[in-house]
Design brief:
Rossmann fold, methyltransferase activity, S-adenosyl-L-methionine, methyltransferase, 9 strands, alpha/beta, seven-stranded mixed sheet, two-stranded antiparallel sheet, SAM-dependent_MTases_sf, Class I SAM-dependent methyltransferase
């Protein structure tokens, strides 16, 4: 092989490596995912359980937007401040629209420009565009003043896509900084056991080399996929254990009031429940609700939710 051919092969290998990394980069991944993230939470009974269980806790712990509006009306305060909610990493706006439909003023930020544009479109389609502001932003560097929001949401796993421990600590500190004292903060992340089950169920032949390192520290990275699998996968992410998740939140200054397993026994049962009759699905839904605050349920879930307060 000539020196020129060797250099060309090396350049090709570097380009291929860069392409694999880009495919696993969260920003590019969600740019290419399109409406998939909006559709994900209504795609099957299990993903609907994730959404329903999350909104149950939002409804229970959020300040009441309607009550504040009614109080302002009684006091003839036409310019009374609405309840301000940050939806950090809000993607296509499924939660932002739900909140806006209930009277909250929502600011959505997401790293993906494509998801931000979709969020604007979805808010307009649902008639809540005046209550939803969507802009590109990074949870590690929120461009808002201290104490800017009455409540903060970071739902569906955005913090899991911040794989570096120090950067994730910075992101958690940012969520705390922009929330008023005493505000509720809702954070959901991807569970480590669910990541391992995905490898076992869908890509075992090509990705079994990832099992031990992901089990050990929860990090699913482009570098590992390139070295230990076939170079293809989903967006880089960190899978949490329940104790670890709670520990990181407390280190950031949050008081964790609830830790919830959003899918628990129904995790990774999408196909089975999609084929089940309505009565059977409802039985599963009831059991998931029954068990969702069991600590083991959090570790078993695809997503675990922490309901926190700012100290």
């Amino acid at each position: 092989m000539s020196d020129e051919e060797g250099e060309r092969d090396a350049e090709d290998a570097t380009a291929a490596e860069r392409d694999r990394d880009a495919d696993l980069d969260p920003e590019r991944y969600y740019d290419e995912f399109g409406e998939g993230e909006w559709e994900r939470l209504d795609r099957d009974p299990v993903t609907r359980m994730e959404f329903e269980n999350t909104t149950d806790y939002l409804a229970e712990y959020l300040p009441e937007a309607e009550a504040r509006a009614a109080e302002a009306a009684r006091d003839d305060a036409a310019d009374a401040d609405p309840v301000r909610v940050l939806d950090a990493g809000g993607a296509a706006g499924r939660y932002a629209c739900w909140l806006a439909e209930r009277g909250y003023d929502v600011t959505l930020v997401d790293l993906s420009a494509a998801q931000v544009e979709l969020a604007r479109e979805k808010a307009a389609e649902r008639g809540v565009a005046e209550r939803v502001t969507a802009e590109r932003g990074d949870v590690r560097d929120l461009r808002f003043a201290d104490d800017a929001f009455d409540a903060v949401c970071c739902l569906g796993g955005p913090l899991s896509h911040v794989v570096d421990d120090d950067e994730r600590a910075t992101a958690m500190a940012e969520l705390r900084r922009v929330a008023v004292p005493g505000a509720p903060v809702f954070v959901s992340v991807i569970g480590r056991f669910a990541m391992l089950r995905d490898i076992l169920k869908f890509t075992l032949d090509d990705s079994h080399g990832l099992l031990a390192p992901v089990a050990a520290d929860g990090d699913y990275t482009a570098e590992r996929v390139a070295q230990l699998a076939d170079g293809e996968g989903w967006a880089e992410c960190h899978g949490f254990r329940a104790d670890e998740f709670e520990r990181e939140l407390e280190a950031a200054g949050f008081v964790v009031e609830k830790l919830v397993g959003l899918e628990n026994v129904a995790a990774r049962m999408k196909r089975e429940l999609a084929d089940a009759d309505d009565e059977a699905v409802e039985s599963v839904r009831e059991v998931v609700r029954m068990l969702r605050e069991d600590r083991t349920a959090a570790d078993c879930s695809e997503h675990m939710l922490a309901v926190c307060r700012v100290e």
